Amino acid sequence: MRAKSVTLKDLARELGLSKSTVSRALRGHPKVKVETKIAVKALAEAWGYEPDLVARSLVQRQSFTIGVVIPRIEFPYFAMALGGAQEVASKAGYNLVICQSNESYEIERSVIRTLVSSKVDGLLISITGQTTAYDHMEDIHKHRLPIVLFDRILEGDVFPMVSMDNVRGALIATEHLLTQGYRRIAHIAGPPDLFVSRQRIQGYRQALQNWDIPFREEYLVSSGFRMNNGEEAMKKLLDLDQPPDAVLAVSDNAALGAKKVIEAEGFTIPDQIGLIGFNGEPLSKVVRPSLTTVSLPMAEMGRVSVKLLLKHIVYPAEPRPHEMIILPPQLLVRESSLKPEQV
Amino acid sequence: MRAKSVTLKDLARELGLSKSTVSRALRGHPKVKVETKIAVKALAEAWGYEPDLVARSLVQRQSFTIGVVIPRIEFPYFAMALGGAQEVASKAGYNLVICQSNESYEIERSVIRTLVSSKVDGLLISITGQTTAYDHMEDIHKHRLPIVLFDRILEGDVFPMVSMDNVRGALIATEHLLTQGYRRIAHIAGPPDLFVSRQRIQGYRQALQNWDIPFREEYLVSSGFRMNNGEEAMKKLLDLDQPPDAVLAVSDNAALGAKKVIEAEGFTIPDQIGLIGFNGEPLSKVVRPSLTTVSLPMAEMGRVSVKLLLKHIVYPAEPRPHEMIILPPQLLVRESSLKPEQV
DNA sequence: GGCCGAAATGGGAACGGTTGCAATGTATTT
DNA sequence: AAATACATTGCAACCGTTCCCATTTCGGCC
């Protein structure tokens, strides 16, 4: 229970005006006399009046708040996107309410419900690895609440989305390895339910096909984004009769896990095994050998997502085709994928 | 402008009850007949009623929202704290509204004002490098709005705080270098206005004093937390007539910047120059040589800060002494500070 | 059957703003 | 001087809850 702050009514009483006039004066309504405006603003300033945004959002039915749901805040990957999102949002006068789903479908469902109850003006969601359908978002549609999915998305054209061209990212990375002369290329993939995982697998297979290299089932290991996922997957790969001579990992962390195992087993990078990660995290630049990585412009993705969402918030009625913005990844070639010339 | 959702009034009309009764039934008020409760809850469920949290916070004068202000979301350092904070907050039924001040005093001032207007129940703040006084937070005190400062704090006993024992962190790091046999130890320090910078300097000087090593002005370089800060500072240090044989940097990033310069100049780590960073970021483990670092439990700091804030929110009246929670840092000894035995 | 107290429900004023419309005051026109 | 237009301001409803207080209902008891 807070201490009472100055309200419109207080100002009105002091000035001998009605609260409507005071309200209008403060917001610069044209129908208020200039002297009145000046007097009102002066008193408001002197008394430190600040409008109660809760009351305002109740009557205006908009809160200038955007709800954001991501799997985890502390993943630099998402934190970067948050930074970009925050930047654009606050420029437009919006605040961000940020929730993490902890990769749990149940939590995701619950925080979305809370955010809707809190009357956010729109939702920005990156789904969990467990989320395989949109059913928990359906009633949002009924509420006409604008929603944008970003990064972690599902197939379908229900919601506007912002994503990376993951197919292309994996494709250029794999082709780069092929160009370098690697031929037995494995892929440490992400959680199989995630669309991004499947897209990267698709790009990987596409590249092999372009080069007429047969796809080998045992070179595709489903795993996860974390370092220990990469370690486990790499162990499996090295246990094969014919281990790969290059690896494309689904994240930089997974790549570093793989790197650890590769080096522990006495192989050298990039001579014996080439390695490429995904995400372009700062880490990749400072390890030795430095890690070639598919860099994803996450801050840009955050910015673009909020811009798209704001468009839907500001012009809600406009019928528009299904929107899908796809950002280009960029291959940062570093040491870990540069195969020395064959002698 | 949203589509209308189901309200108490709708339910009341349908059931032939008053909205007071419906409201009480849904919240399990004891004075409502059991059958009524069941009927109300059934209809609420069927119609997908969700209470409007905005209206509720207007009348209850609490929003179950905590405002967080940090310099930058995307710094892993703060992102970790956010993760811990979110965890505790959501367990207690609170949401986090997160704003970044971008290291600007003006933005900090403005977002705090907005958060107060939004009637958050409490504030969690880590100040900018420009913030040298509390004046913009004074009126919060008048509003009786609980506030907790964390990590980046100012001296004083106005607000409860959660911080690291930075003095001790710098002290054990420096003493570790001394134990290893390094004698010309430099310190790449943070922005001079920040309390944490000054604390780390204090710990560094304390260690030198404990070992009767004279403090040398030219070995203390004011800098910043970023990688390029570390680079510039290190260049200055290497330009000295007698360059240092070990460096304690104010952050892991600054340390990596220093490392780059050290290696570019042909020195080896840890043989010729020992190096220690601050923060315990994931980076530090994967570089070669791996980086000794003063690890700060940021997630824990986030958790503790929210817990403290919640205590002030729930029991606001209780007079209590000035609270200051100090978390212990931990020295993670890795390769970069292990001086080989002298021959 | 009337009375009493408890149990259950309803009425209505908040909370702090916004907003359509009515009411007042002032200046201009005929 | 009356009519008209326009500039200001006020009234009151509303947004969706909560909660105090009054009212109704009901069962038990004499």
Number of H/I helices of chain A = 13
Protein chain pair with the most extensive contact, residues per chain: A-B, 55 and 55 residues
Poorly predicted ranges of chain A (pLDDT <50, ≥5 residues)? none
The N- to C-terminal Cα distance of chain A equals: 78 Å
β-strand number of chain A: 12
> What does the oligomeric state look like here?
homodimer
User: What integer value in Å does the Rg of chain A equal?
Assistant: 26 Å
Classification by helices and strands of chain A: alpha/beta
Shape annotation of chain A = elongated
Helix residue percentage of chain A: 40-55%
Helix/strand order of chain A = HHHHEHEHEHEEHEHEHEHEHEHEE
Spatial sequence of strands, sheet with the most strands of chain A: 2-1-3-4-5-11
**Strand portion of chain A, in percent?**
15-25%
Largest sheet of chain A: 6 strands, parallel
Quickly list its features:
homodimer; 6-stranded parallel beta sheet; 13 helices; elongated; DNA-binding
